[in-house]
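Lab notebook, entry 253. We have the chain sequence and a SMILES string for zinc ion, and the next step in the workflow is to get a structural model of the bound complex before anyone spends time on docking refinements. Request logged below.

Task: model protein plus zinc ion, output structure tokens.
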Amino acid sequence: MSLMPTVRIVGDGNFIDPWCDRWIPELGVATPKPNTSPDSLLKVSDFIEPATRTWDRVKLNQHFDQSSIERIVKIPLSVSPSSDRRAWDLTRDGKFTTKSAYHGLRGIRDDPTSKVWKKIWRTKIPYRVQVFIWRCAKNALPTRDNLSLRVQLPSILCPFCQTSPETIMHVLITCPISSRIWFQSRLNMRTVAFLGKPIMDWFRFCLGEAPFLYSQEKDESFPLVACLMWSIWLSRNNMIHNAKTDSPFLIIN
Ligand SMILES: [Zn+2]
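Result returned:
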């Protein structure tokens, strides 16, 4: 992650994750306020006052540590909000493209021709979900396991089952709660084979890439796989931060 270039905000920050993207000059990712747990649903846009186009200091104070805040408030914001997707000033003409986000945010070390990436970008799903899936594949979601690499956490165990570290694979696929959802869904998937495996294995399987078998059915069901992963993530965050529990039935739908 340290090889990622610093990312400047020139747009509305809708697609920048404060805890996983490098968006603060010198620091990169933000550090949560001591003794709080980072809210994974927050985007950088949540800290910008839409009316005045300035940093919302009250909100910054609720979530970030002092040294992060000092640097965040120095980041210039454009007077008028730029188009939604123009959150990173990475291409020469200043236009945001998914490709520039892909190269800029995650580094260019990955083979851009990789079939998995291509398939993810080609999938017809809402843009927000696509960004989310791409973050999953890049292991760039603020799970406890990832956050613990940067901040001190009381526990990295999954807050729901308390049996395994909260990795992306665990929270979205193999946690008993999620596992039940996959099985009960129209996909009728058993996820036990993915216990302890990296999340890329899951994507290779769902997209029919080697060493897994390809079938047209897999291509057709991937949008549903993606949306279910997204719903599980939203519901997990709702449970943690709003103490709201969605029934598996609601998540599947
Ligand atoms: Zn769990």
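Notes for the group: The CA atoms of residues 51 and 80 lie 10 Å apart. Worth checking against the assay data. The mean pLDDT is 81.
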